[in-house]
Write a structure and sequence with these properties.
Length: 263
Amino acid sequence: MNKYSVSVLILNYNNAKYLNRSIKSCINQSYKQIEILVYDDKSSDCSVEILKKYKNKKIKVFYNTSNKTNIAAIDAKNGYYNLIKLSKGKIIFLLDSDDYFKKNKVKELIKIYKKNNQINYIQDLPTIYSKGKKKIKNKNNFLSFWPYLAPESCISFRKKLFIDFKKRNKSFENNFNDVWFGFRLGVFAYFKDRSFYSLDKSLTNYKSYGESKKYNLFNSNWFNRRLNSFYYLKKIDQSHINLNFNFDYLFTKVICLISKCFK
């Protein structure tokens, strides 16, 4: 495969209702040099039956053979990490099985990669479908320190970026399991690798935009994970980042301290 070959990595857990749509959006891409790797995380619905029907040589299916269920959603090393290791493409696209790509997504992003060798990470914007409404998300709250980092289904990157990311994260990555993989990779690309590109266009249809109840907006877990995100940033870029006078960081830290006092 050449340096613009693509691997699309799909994680699935009990999304049989949407799984065909997700896979077919990859098969039907206008860019054809694609392989599709699907990881099923011990689904208890009819996902496995659906996956067994696919005979397309572009599609490779892998199954969670451990004793634990739904581990990929919690720990990227048991989902995306394994698929990246098994993939042959030089450029990786992530996709949750309840989301799907627009037909020209891969082709449009590959054009950007070809034009600029300094870009190692590209996100497009999600078209979000939630409670019968549709919107395009493209920014954070104006008080937020962080750049807008799109959901994982909007993320693509050169494999060489992941290799560098993994190497630099090896000694401490287990300390940040509550900070989702796509966010950490985006932070690494934006602040450390300086190879981040955000396309101001939606090429991904996203089922919903929300967290599990554990991380409901502004609850204690949400603030703790936000604080861990700042700690992660300090770990990967100690020489350039000074958060001592950053309002977002200090406010988050104070809220977390108060929350601990009431536990």
